[in-house]
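note to self — DONT lose this again. spent like an hour looking for the file last time. sequence + predicted structure for the chain T wanted, 323 res
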Amino acid sequence: MSVEQAKEVLTIEAEGILAVRDHLGEEFVRAVDLIMECPTRLVITGIGKSGIVGQKISATLNSTGTPSFFLHPVEAMHGDLGMVSSSDVVLAISYSGETMELNGLLGSLRERSVRVIAMTGNPDSTLAGCADVTLNVHVPREACPLGLAPTTSTTATLALGDALAVALLKRKQFRAEDFRRNHPGGSLGERLKVAVREVMLTGSRIPLVSDQARFTDAVAELNEKNFGAVVVVDDRKRLRGIITDGDVRRLILAHRSLEDSRISEVMTEEPVTITRDLMAADALSIMQSREITVLPVVGEDLVLEGILHLHDLLGKGEFRFLI
């Protein structure tokens, strides 16, 4: 029964988005033009659920090349209005268009000659009447069976905000490079564009042990390199297996002697590997899909060339570029 109810909610919300799509016309083009002509920032305001949706729309706009910030209408009337300049454009969100706190802000915005775009489900509302442009987000019905909780209307408003952001992105000819510049904490994008050979550990930094060594030697290497794993190779440096911290813990929990254990008994044979010419993004995808944190890098005949750790790809550790 609950699955059918969930499907009904999704159907109702999908109908709402399609209804908003059908409302689109010249007003949407005017809204895009107004924002494109704005020399400063797009200020987004709303209260309650509309305010939460507005914060998400603002975040999306900032990511995609349209400078924006969210302004709470109550805080605006208690000093934050000083953040708004006459050259800004305001996107005011209220499904009813009769939200007292939001409409109370409109007079102050008009005094500053600020242009206003309304996003409302009521084109005949006070908000729409005070706006330069009105975007109609009216939906046939809410998914809430009581018709009280904003559900379909907030989904449709959020979707229209995405449509606005994407339309502006295309008008600005915003590129992937620009997106990455806006996500330096998302310098993850930059890190993942490089080849594996540029970021893998090589030489003496690789946690490495011979398949002829004692198991306690592997434990010592694990402890010294502090990498979470040690790779096992033969006398021709071909990869034979891998031993992780977890393997050692499981051995101890099984009450087996470290001295008496052999590497071949504990290591994982034929571990997942990657080659040096693939991208760091490929390495991350493999790690995520296989739920592992370490990848040996191999060449022909499985000769070990390096090793990668998930932390290096995600930036939690030092990201090493080889010279």
